[in-house]
Specification:
The chain is an all-alpha fold and about 350 residues long. Helix content is about 70%, strand content about 0%. It has twelve helices and no strands. The N terminus and C terminus are likely disordered.
Amino acid sequence: MILRVNVWKENQNSEEMSLQDDQPKNHTMDERKFPEDEEVRVKVFQSRESVLTELFRNKHILAIYRMFVALIVGTCINTLLHDYFYNEQIGTGYRLIIKVFRNFHAFVIAWIFAFSITLCVYPAFQVWGAVRLHLLSKSNHLLLWDKLWMVIYLLYATTILYCSVWATFRYDFGYALGGATGCETTRLIMKSYAFIRTCAPDIVKHVKVKSSRNFSHYVYFLFAPTLLYRDSYPRSKGSIRWHLVINYFIELIAAIVLCSFVYQTTYISQLEDFGLRPYRLADIGMIVLRNAPYAMLTSLLLFYLLLHLWSNAFAEMLHFSDRIGGRRPPSRGTTERGMV
């Protein structure tokens, strides 16, 4: 009888322990222990060339690149001669460039306005940090001070976005300039946020601001081809290779002209009657299939134009030697698996 009671008590205790294990445990951040493999990995900047630059050093890849350039030049010459002999005019592609870059002077003014507002983020951050260091850590004034500047930053981001949209429609920017306005506004907001996100923890911890975080370094970061703020970046030695910068901009202009040729001779010519005559489902399907290779070509050109030519040109002029823009170091588990 005693044995049965003991067995019943053990079963009841085991059921209570299983129920306790099934219930969620509310641990605080101090009690919670994270595995070592989930440690935060910060991107590291090193002096290195871009991926495409390394690939072009291979003779076989360079030969394919030159064949591709020759094909592009041949296509442009063929289009120009066709327009000259059959249409008695030369302007295919160039008219589209003028159209999509319409009101370029207004775009420059809008960019200067957005850039000037972004420059004001640095002195505003200095004011916030200087006053915050003199406030008590647990006072209500500290919380109100932080919330006030958070609202000011949100107003800055909202204002710059609204002004970019307003300028695009008010001055009737071309399609390319309208897209560039949105991208550049987003880039400036991300740059200012990266600066605040990196420097704010030192102010919160009442750490003295580093002397390297001066205004000139903030301006350099706004032009550098990276979205990660650091107190120092790897810099290339020697003078600026202007022949390389000029070559980048020549290729950039050629890529823009080629995109214009492709759009003018494919998409626009096949869809210029859209809305004027009925299209069957088969017609739409054939148009999509015919333009699919050209869509892939323009996507590659835009990738090459923005992520290689534009970024490398500014990196060379700014002596920014990390042409990849930072890379996460491998975690401990990854390193151990790689060494096996």
